UniProtKB/TrEMBL annotation:
GO terms for biological process: lipid catabolic process. This is GDSL-motif lipase/hydrolase family protein. The keyword Ribosomal protein does not apply. Keywords: Hydrolase, Lipid degradation, Lipid metabolism. GO terms for molecular function: hydrolase activity, acting on ester bonds. Pfam families: Lipase_GDSL. It comes from Arabidopsis lyrata subsp. lyrata (Lyre-leaved rock-cress). The keyword Lipid metabolism applies. Belongs to the 'GDSL' lipolytic enzyme family. Transmembrane segments: none annotated. InterPro entries: GDSL, GDSL_Est/Lipase, SGNH_hydro_sf, SGNH_plant_lipase-like. The lineage of its organism: Eukaryota, Viridiplantae, Streptophyta, Embryophyta, Tracheophyta.
Length: 361
């Protein structure tokens, strides 16, 4: 048993612990360690990321992700490392672990075209291994206490929908599900994984809804949508899914809050936030919500540094003025605006309350 004074030191050391699950919006380098076409390990990715001195880390943006920014605001000294990075285990106690993987989805088959990725089911299995490690070090009770205070963040689902809207690729085409079946299947699987994490001791959840995918340069190009407009067809699919997800989280809150273990599921409404940002970007001090800062506006959309370029030539000149970093992902400037709202926003942004409030519970 820990002495009382040692215990208080330990809780002071545990400033903010976050276990992060998701896709390329929050991947911090897991995909660097697997054979995959979904990678962000070359310049100019990471060009504005301070801790790496502008070198790529595997983050799919120019700087910090939303999870990085939220963590900093809540006192994390550094971001949780990728689970697949060698020797990341010890971080389980310091600031958590990041299991997210570019191209991953809620459904196991999502992202098949990219070959390697860590689907959500596998990400949760990796957490089980992290938990086993914790139990070996501090015992079952210590682990339970620590996980009660930790945050579990889930940012996933975009790829499940993108896979469904893009044209079938020969040899890789799976049967596409009807939209309502896809939405229901995604919610069902996500809810199952959330319940599993709850059984393993998670109590504070942030589940990020899907953003307006119809507004990303990739979806606009695919559907030949003119500048300043979004694909309503794609956004409608996202809205339908988010509505079902929100309903499911409400049910989970009612079911699991009434029992002796007090779980809270916060729904983060990134859809409305991002849509507002894309449609009113100038009000937020940005100048371009149309083109990606890096990479093509048409297939194959890749963002990379040419042989005779330096990193900054490969990207747009003023990266702090663009909403989109590449054809799929927001810039750090956009991530900052969204993260700030999720941290401190009202109930239109996060329900039943914002992330800072959840952290203080």
């Amino acid at each position: 048993m820990l002495h009382h004074d040692q215990q208080s030191n330990d809780s002071a050391a545990q400033s903010f612990t976050n276990f992060i699950f998701g896709d390329s919006l929050v991947d911090v380098g897991n995909n660097n360690y697997i054979f995959t076409l979904s990678k962000a390990d070359s310049s100019p990715y990471g060009i504005d990321f301070g801790p790496s001195n502008g070198q790529p880390t595997g983050r799919f943006t120019n700087g910090r992700t939303i999870s990085d920014i939220v963590g900093e605001a809540l006192g994390a000294k550094s971001a949780p490392p990728p689970y697949l990075e060698p020797n990341s285990e010890a971080n389980t106690f310091l600031n958590g672990i990041n299991y997210a993987s570019g191209a991953a989805g809620i459904l196991d088959d999502t992202g098949l075209f990219f070959i390697g990725r860590v689907p959500l089911r596998e990400q949760v299995s990796y957490f089980e291994k992290s938990r086993d490690y914790m139990v070996r070090v501090i015992g079952e009770n210590g682990t339970k206490e620590m996980l009660k205070k930790a945050m579990f963040t889930m940012t996933i689902g975009s790829n499940d929908i993108l896979n469904n809207i893009q044209p079938s690729i020969p040899f890789f085409s799976q049967d596409k599900l009807p939209i309502d079946v896809l939405q229901d299947s995604m919610v069902l699987h996500l809810t199952t994984h959330l319940k599993r994490l709850h059984q393993l001791g998670a109590r504070k959840f942030v589940v990020v809804g899907i953003g307006p995918l119809g507004c990303i340069p990739f979806a606009r190009a695919l559907n030949l949508i003119p500048a300043g407009k979004c694909s309503e067809q794609v956004n409608q699919i996202v809205r339908g899914y988010n509505m079902k997800l929100r309903h499911s989280l409400k049910t989970l809150n009612n079911e699991l809050r009434s029992e002796d273990y007090n779980a809270t599921f916060v729904y983060a409404n990134s859809y409305d936030l991002f849509l507002k940002l894309v449609l009113n970007y100038r009000q937020f001090g940005l100048e371009n919500a149309d083109k990606p800062c890096c990479g093509g506006y048409f297939p194959p959309f890749t963002c990379f540094k040419g042989p005779n370029q330096n990193s900054s030539q490969a990207a747009c000149e003023d990266r702090s003025k663009f909403v989109f970093w590449d054809a799929y992902h927001p810039t750090e400037a956009a991530n900052l605006i969204v993260a700030k709202a999720l941290l401190d926003g009202d109930q239109t942004v996060a329900t039943p309350f914002n992330i800072r409030y959840l952290n203080d519970l």
